[in-house]
Write a structure and sequence with these properties.
Layout: E1 16-19, E2 56-76, E3 82-95, E4 97-106, E5 109-118, E6 124-143, E7 146-150, E8 167-192, E9 197-202
Antiparallel strand pairs: 1-6, 2-3, 2-4, 2-8, 3-6, 4-5, 5-9, 6-8, 7-8
Length: about 210
């Protein structure tokens, strides 16, 4: 997989837009949240649930995906609190490796819940993933991108649409390397995780 087009000299190929260190929210937050995925009938991702209010780290060395759609949304916790972020839908993605980590307070102290997969075991694949995230950094390339499209007309990822008049963006394909992100929640249709490892430890290390 190649690095972002931002490393090349000259203008990007016709019909493609490249950004260096893209800050579009929650792109891969993309598969590192496998333990929190929820299977949806027929791949339609319309489920909602109260979020815990604890943002978790996600990272990946390389993410590529066919289809991406996003718009601003607010997640709600059980106490009614709001957590604004980007709702991002991924159609079909492949990741070289993933890491997800969350700090959780317990009666015996703060523990780190950590999940890793991929790497030497092989790529991780995920279909029909919806992420509600805070931020993202990485080197990114977007193909056939549309920014500012009415969110109610998004059509790159089935079932991912916002309200009429709402700001939206979408792309036919995307590649992001050096992914680091924080997310509130994720729901997904189908994760295929190679080399899955899960740990819970007192004062354990996070993803970054």
């Amino acid at each position: 997989m190649s690095r972002a087009d931002g490393n090349r000299s000259g203008p990007p190929p016709e019909g493609r837009t490249a950004w260096r260190k893209a800050a579009l929210v929650a792109l891969p937050a993309v598969a590192a949240v496998a333990a929190m995925s929820v299977a949806m009938a027929e791949g339609v991702l319309a489920a909602s649930f109260a979020v815990s209010g604890t943002a978790f780290q996600v990272s990946s060395g390389q993410l590529t995906s066919k289809g991406l759609a996003s718009f601003v949304d607010v997640g709600r916790s059980a106490d009614g609190g709001g957590h604004p972020g980007a709702l991002l839908g991924i159609g079909r993605a492949t990741l070289s490796d993933i890491c997800q980590a969350a700090k959780v307070d317990t009666p015996v102290g703060r523990v780190v819940f950590k999940l890793t997969a991929g790497g030497d075991a092989g790529d991780v694949a995920v279909d029909h993933l919806v992420i509600h995230g805070q931020d993202l950094v990485g080197d990114a390339r977007f193909g056939e991108v549309e920014i500012g499209r009415d969110a109610s007309t998004l059509d790159r990822v089935p079932g991912i649409r916002g309200r009429p008049g709402q700001f939206g963006l979408q792309a036919a394909d995307v590649s992001v390397s050096g992914v680091r992100s924080h997310a509130w929640s994720a729901t997904g249709g189908d994760f295929r995780l190679k080399g899955l490892a899960l740990s819970v430890s007192l004062n354990g290390g996070e993803c970054f």
